[in-house]
Structure formats: structure tokens, C-alpha cells
């Protein structure tokens, strides 16, 4: 496993964007970043994870992760791939139902290639912005105070919550996460971006027929 929380220094020359779950729709993502005039020489794109499964272009995830301006946290779908390829610990039927067929049907050496790259993805990112530190996680912050996140992520319970929980949205919980300007998350498709406390849910279902990719400028929050 790589580092649990990856820190990024302030982007002094360009803009920083966050994007929700991609789920194998990299052509649509490419169109979305072109629409905002994304400049790969200066700008950065931060993903809340779930790059793969469900869509037709999941295999491109490795190409995108190799780009110097694209950074992602791990989602529960990367976690499926890691567990299957590196630990052999996955409910195969459940994985296939959730879009993992493309992965299960690849040769095991190729699966392992993905697993090793995904296993380097952090559970959380911290990005310095002019407004303060912005945190990103796939599903929800498992602690009420960002300063305790690193310690908490040492436990499987907190790691699971970080990549699977839908509790905040289900309860419309507006409790702020302390000691962080904002926390950006995905995982649960919604029609429009919604902020609950300082947690901003941005998965507007760019991979769904009726959805779209939201490119959230991190300095706008
Ligand atoms: Mn997810």
C-alpha cells in the first residue's frame, strides 16, 4: 500500500479541478475537461476515485493515472480490483454484478498490473488552495476532525467507511469536518452538486445516461 493521505502543494500557475466517479467513461471526461478549457500544462484534475467498472473504457484508467496532471484517491471499485488481484479476497458474483466483468475476464497478469497501480492510490488527498486545505475522499470522511484522519485510516473500519459510506447523504448530515476548509467526495450519484456542512458531494453521474461530469474548481469552494 502507498501513502494513506497524499498532499499536494498549491497550484501557483493554473487551476485545480475535482471530478466525480468516472466508471470507465474517459471519452466523456475528456470532453468535459475540454469544455472548461482545461490546460494540461498548468491545470490539475483530482478524481474522487471509481475510475473503473460499468463503462466501456475502464482499461484507460492506467493511462490516465500515468498523466502528470491527473491524481486520484481510491474508490470502492479500485478496492475490488486490489482485493481480487492481490489478495484473492472478493465476492466474484457481487463484483461482476457491480461492473467488474471486464476485470474478471482479463488475464491474471494484467489484473495484477492494475492491482499494483491501484494499491498505490491514497485513501485521501489534501490540496492546498488560496482558501485553505481541501480534502478529498471517495465516499465520506470517517472522522469529525481531519487531524485525526491519518490515525483513523490505520483501522479497516475507517478505511471501509472512507470508500463505502453513504450515511452523510442519507441523513443529510450537515456536521462540519473540523480542521479542513472543505472535503470533496463522490460515490453516490446526485443530480446537482450539494454541500452538506463543508462536505461537497460532486458525483453528478457523468457515467450515467442522464448524468454529467461536474468539474469543480477547488478555489470556488
Ligand atoms: Mn463508489
From TrEMBL:
InterPro entries, sorted: Ap4A_hydrolase, Calcineurin-like_PHP, Metallo-depent_PP-like, Ser/Thr-sp_prot-phosphatase
Record domain Serine/threonine specific protein phosphatases: where: 73-78
Gene Ontology molecular function terms on file: phosphatase activity
Family annotation (PROSITE patterns): SER_THR_PHOSPHATASE
GO cellular component terms attached to this protein's record: cytoplasm
Superkingdom: Bacteria
Stated name of the protein: Serine/threonine protein phosphatase
Lineage: Bacteria, Pseudomonadati, Pseudomonadota, Betaproteobacteria, Burkholderiales
Organism: Pollutimonas subterranea
Coiled coil: none
Amino acid at each position: 500500500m502507498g501513502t494513506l493521505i497524499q498532499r499536494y502543494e498549491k497550484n501557483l500557475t493554473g487551476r485545480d479541478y475535482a471530478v466525480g466517479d468516472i466508471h470507465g467513461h474517459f471519452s466523456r471526461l475528456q470532453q468535459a475537461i475540454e469544455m472548461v478549457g482545461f490546460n494540461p500544462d498548468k491545470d490539475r484534475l483530482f478524481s474522487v476515485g471509481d475510475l473503473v467498472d460499468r463503462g466501456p473504457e475502464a482499461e484507460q484508467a492506467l493511462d490516465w493515472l500515468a498523466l502528470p496532471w491527473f491524481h486520484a484517491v481510491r474508490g470502492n471499485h479500485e478496492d475490488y480490483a486490489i482485493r481480487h488481484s492481490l489478495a484473492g479476497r472478493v465476492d466474484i458474483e457481487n463484483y461482476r454484478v457491480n461492473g467488474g466483468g471486464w476485470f474478471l475476464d482479463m488475464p491474471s497478469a494484467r489484473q495484477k498490473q492494475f492491482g499494483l497501480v491501484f494499491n498505490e492510490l491514497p485513501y485521501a488527498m489534501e490540496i492546498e488552495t488560496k482558501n485553505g486545505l481541501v480534502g478529498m475522499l471517495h465516499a465520506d470522511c470517517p472522522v469529525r476532525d481531519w487531524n485525526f484522519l491519518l490515525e483513523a485510516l490505520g483501522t479497516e473500519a475507517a478505511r471501509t467507511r472512507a470508500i463505502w459510506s453513504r450515511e452523510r447523504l442519507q441523513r443529510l448530515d450537515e456536521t462540519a469536518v473540523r480542521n479542513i476548509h472543505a472535503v470533496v467526495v463522490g460515490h453516490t450519484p446526485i443530480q446537482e452538486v450539494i454541500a452538506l456542512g463543508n462536505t461537497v458531494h460532486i458525483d453528478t453521474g457523468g457515467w450515467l445516461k442522464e448524468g454529467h461530469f461536474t468539474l469543480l474548481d477547488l478555489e470556488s469552494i
